[in-house]
Amino acid sequence: MDSIPTNRRSSVEAIARQTRPSRKGHRLCLVPLLVAVGMAATPFAIAQTGNIVAWGGNIDGQSTVPAGLSSGVVAIAAGFDHSLAVRGNGTVVAWGNNGVGQTNVPAGLSDAVSVAGGMLHSLALRRNGTAMAWGGNASGQTSVPAGLSGVVAIAAGDHHSLALRRNGTVVAWGDNNHGQRDVPAGLSGVVAIAAGGRHSLALKGDGSVVFWGDPAAAPPAPLSGMMAIAAGGTHSLALKKNGMVEAWGGNAFGQSTVPLGLSGVVAISAGYYHSLALRGNGSVAAWGDPDENKTNVPASLSSGVTAIAGGRGHNLALKGDRKAPSIRITGPKTSGNYPSSRKIAIKGQATDNAGLARWEYKLNNGKWKKGGNLSGKSRAWKKRIGKVKAGRNRAQVRAYDTSGLVSKVAKRNVRLSRPSGN
Question: What whole-number distance in Å separates Cα of residue 205 and Cα of residue 182?
Answer without folding.
Answer: 21
